[in-house]
């Protein structure tokens, strides 16, 4: 569940710092540096942050840091550029940003619901489990350095880049419209990949053929979409509903 305790950030005068306290006892320090409102949320349960929600001011660029492991948190941004940082593992978190070029930096996330809205957004995380990512229009970048298990990512429109550094299982990746790049560095199991069935050329890369595990499917490919396995390129041909290499080898899914 998301936090039931939401604090609206007060924007201080430049050069000053404001301290606010949530009803659950977490201290939040906010200062203004140039055009950016900087907030830091401190633990309220030992070394952990528990049941804390943050709502940014109606406008202005922001950077909010949750300083510690967290549970049952929520964050609501505005239509400008929002940066959200989790320094510890996050469990049961809901994050929503509006327009603007937003950034999420996190360690592991378990049971997250994350909506980055429109704009050129960026997300860099550790492992993900039972988590949903949604992005709107814009050139978005997702880098998941750890394992992804039961994850759903909808990249929306725009030329998006998704990089998975660890194993992926029981997940769904929806690339949407645009010339997208999807890169897997480890084994992918029971995962559905939808290329968006558009006229733009998408690229999906696997480190080796052995990394394409059972239950992994690629849908929505169009003419010219590229599948790269261990450096060898296969180009999708709709007349054969298959990815064809320059050597004439074919790979089909489904």
How is this structure best described in words?
The chain is mainly β and 254 residues long. It has one domain (6-251): Pectate Lyase C-like. Helices cover 0% and strands 50% of the residues. It has strands at 6-8, 17-21, 27-33, 36-41, 48-55, 61-66, 69-76, 82-86, 90-96, 103-105, 109-115, 122-125, 128-134, 141-144, 148-154, 161-164, 168-169, 172-174, 181-184, 188-189, 192-194, 203-206, 217-219, 226-229, 232-237, 242-245, 250-251. It has a 15-stranded mixed sheet, with no helix packed on it. It is elongated and about 65 Å long. The mean pLDDT is 96.
TL;DR?
This protein has a single domain (6-251), classed as Pectate Lyase C-like, CATH 2.160.20. Helices cover 0% and strands 50% of the residues.
Keywords:
254 residues, Pectate Lyase C-like, 12-stranded parallel β-sheet, mainly beta, 15-stranded mixed β-sheet
What's the structural blueprint in terms of helices and strands?
Layout: E1 6-8, E2 17-21, E3 27-33, E4 36-41, E5 48-55, E6 61-66, E7 69-76, E8 82-86, E9 90-96, E10 103-105, E11 109-115, E12 122-125, E13 128-134, E14 141-144, E15 148-154, E16 161-164, E17 168-169, E18 172-174, E19 181-184, E20 188-189, E21 192-194, E22 203-206, E23 217-219, E24 226-229, E25 232-237, E26 242-245, E27 250-251
Parallel strand pairs: 1-5, 4-6, 5-7, 6-8, 7-9, 8-10, 9-11, 10-12, 11-13, 12-14, 13-15, 14-16, 15-17, 15-18, 16-19, 17-20, 18-21, 19-22, 21-23, 22-24
Antiparallel strand pairs: 2-3, 3-4, 24-25, 25-26, 26-27
The count of β-strands is 27
**Strand arrangement, major sheet:** 2-3-4-6-8-10-12-14-16-19-22-24-25-26-27
Helix content: under 10%
Number of helices: 0
> And the CATH topology?
Pectate Lyase C-like
Stretches where pLDDT is under 50 for at least 5 consecutive residues are none
